Amino acid sequence: MELTQNVKNIQEKWDANFMKTYAQIPVVIDKGEGATVTDIDGKEYVDFTSGIGVSSLGYGHPGLVKAIQYQAAKLLHSSNIFFNQPHVEAGEKLVKLSGYDKVFFCNSGTEANEGAMKIARKYSDLKYEGDRGTVLSLNKSFHGRTMASLMATGKEAYHKYFYPLPTGYKYVEKNDIEAFKEALKDETICAFIFEAVQGEGGVYPIDKEFIEEAVKLCQEKDIVVICDEVQAGMGRTGHLFGFQEFDIKPDLITMAKGLAGGIPVGAILANEKVSDVLVPGDHGTTFGGNALAMAAANVVLDELAKPEFLEDVAKKGNYIMDTVKSWGLDEIVEVRGKGLMIGIEIKGSAAEVEKIAAQKGLLILTAGEHVVRLLPPLVISMDEINKGLEILKECL
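Above: the chain's sequence. Below: its structure in C-alpha cell form.
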C-alpha cells in the first residue's frame, strides 16, 4: 500500500513513541459521517468495522454529538463518592430494558468480565465456604487481556509469556454437551462464562441446544452463569443481547464496546440471585459511571429501546449474509453470524483481503487467519452497505 507523506509522518511518530502492540493498516482516520470515514488525505472509506463494534451509532450522530457537547461543558467527572444524574439515568434505563435487577458501570469489557468473576467467586465463597472458585469457559473464547480475563480466555496463545498465571480456570469445547457434563464433575467450579457469538474466535454463534442444556445444568448445580456480551450485545445481533435468541437467562451479563457509541464504558448486569453480593469495599473503579460516558450511553440506550431499530439491524445483517452467499465464490467457505456481526470464512488470507479492501476504500476486520469479520455501525445505510459489498466482492 503506497503511503502519502502525511501517513508516513504519522507512522514515524508512532514508531518513535509507542509500544509495538498493534499491527496497524496504514490509514489515518480523520473524521466520519454515518458509516463512512475520511482519512487525513481526504480519501473516503465505507466502514464495516465500527471501531471493532464500538461506534454503534456511526459517526456524527446528531443526538450523540449534542449530548457529549452538552455534558462536556457541564461536568466531565465527579467520582463515585457522589451521585451524578447521567449515571443514575443510564443505570435506570439499562435495568429497565434488560429486565435485570442491578447494574455496575466500569470502563471496558475486560473489567466487566473481571468484576463478574469476582461476584461469582464471592457468591460461592459465602455459600460454600471457600470450596468453589474455578471458572469454566469455552475453547476459542475471548474475554479480555487483563490477567484474570486473560485466563478465562480459552486460547493458549494468549497465555504465553505471562507466567505465573492466575489459577482457577478450566476450558471445555463449545457445543459438546457430553464434555461439558464431564467438566461439571469438578465440584470446585463456581462460574461458567460464555459468549453468545464467539467474535475473536471466528464469529461462531453458540449452538442453541448446547447452551440451553449447559445453562440448565449450571442452574441445577448453583453455578453462576456469566454471558459475555461485550461484542455481541448492545443490539449487534438484532437483539439487545445475543443470548436473547435462546431460552436462557444468565445470572450476570457483561457488556462494553457499543454501549456509549465511542466513549469507553463497560457494565455488569446482575439478576436478583447475585445482585447484592458486592458491598462497599469489595469492588469499584474511579472512572466507572463517568458523567460524559453516561451521557453518551443514555443516547445509545434510547435508540436500543426502539423495537424498529433492532429489527432494522437484523434485516441489514440478513441482507449482507444473503448477498455474500449469492455470489457463489469458490474462495468463500462459509458465511455465518447474527445481525451485524458477520464472519466470512475464506480459503486464503483474511489479513491480505483486509489490506486490499483498505486500498479500495473499505474497512473490514479479521477473526483468525481465514475469517473476514464485519461489524458495521448499526445505523449503516443500505447505500453504504451496497457500496461496501461491491468492494468486498472485488477483493474476494
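The longest helix spans residues 109-128.
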